[in-house]
Amino acid sequence: MCPSCAFRKTCETWGEPRNRLVSQICAAGPIPFYCHQGVPWGNPLAHALPPRSLAQLAGGKLRLCEGWKQAVASRQWPADGALRRYQRWLAIAALKAADRFHDGAATVRELQRELSPLAQFYRGPRAWQIARMVEKRQ
Predict the structure, then answer these.
(1) Which letter does DSSP use for residue 76 in this model?
(2) Do the Cβ atoms of 71 and 27 come closer than 8 Å?
(3) Could you give the CA distance from residue 59 to residue 40 in angstroms, rounded to a whole number?
(4) Which pLDDT score is estimated for 29?
(5) How far is CA 15 from CA 21, 82, 126, in A?
(6) CA 133 to chain centre
(7) pLDDT of res. 69
(8) What are the CA-CA distances from residue 91 to residues 4, 34, 43, 98 (Å)?
(9) Is pLDDT above 80 for 45?
(10) Please, are residues 64 and 33 in contact by the beta-carbon 8 Å criterion?
C-alpha cells in the first residue's frame, strides 16, 4: 500500500468522504479502484474517464490500488457466477447513487436507500430473495 492509500485508516484519503465511499463500494463490487498517485483525482472529470484515458493522464503509470487488492482478496465471494454478476451490478448502481449524491442531485435518504441493496447482499439475503433478484435481472 502506498503511504496515502484510501484503504489505510491513518491517511487523509481515508477520511475524505467521497473517496472512502467509492473505495468501499469498489471493494464490495469488485470494481477496479486505481491508485491515486499520478492521477489528479481532485478534478471531478477524472472520475468519469475510462481506464485508458486515466492511464494517459497519469503518464502511463496507472495501476490498481494495492489496498483495494487486499480488500478484495480478504472477502469471500459467491461461487455462483450469476450472484457475482448481480453483486457487481449492485455495486455499479451504488457508485451511480454516490455520484448523484456528491453532485447534489440526491439526498442522504436517497443515497441510503440506493446503497441498502448492496449492504443487504453482504448481510446475506435469503436464498429465495437472491433467486428472485437474479430472475429480475435476466
Answers:
(1) -
(2) yes
(3) 11
(4) 84
(5) 10, 34, 34
(6) 20
(7) 92
(8) 24, 16, 23, 10
(9) no
(10) yes
Instruction: Name the amino acid, one letter, at 130.
Output: I
Contact partners, residue 90, CB within 8 Å, separation at least 6: 29, 117, 118, 121
Q: Which amino acid is at 105?
A: A
How far is 19 from 85, CA to CA, in rounded Å?
24
| Cell triple for 69 | 487488492
Cell of 124: 446475506
Q: Cα separation of 4 and 15, whole Å?
A: 11
Under DSSP, the state recorded for 108 is H
Q: Give the pTM.
A: 0.74
With beta carbons less than 8 A apart as the criterion, state whether 62 and 93 touch. Answer: no
* Contact yes or no for 133/86 (Cβ under 8 A): yes
Residue 131 CB neighbour total at 10 angstroms: 13
Domain spans, the chain: 1-75, 77-138
Q: How far apart are CA 60 and CA 94, in angstroms?
A: 29
Quote the cell numbers at residue 32: 477496479
H-assigned helices in 11-126: 12-15, 17-28, 51-57, 66-73, 81-102, 108-123
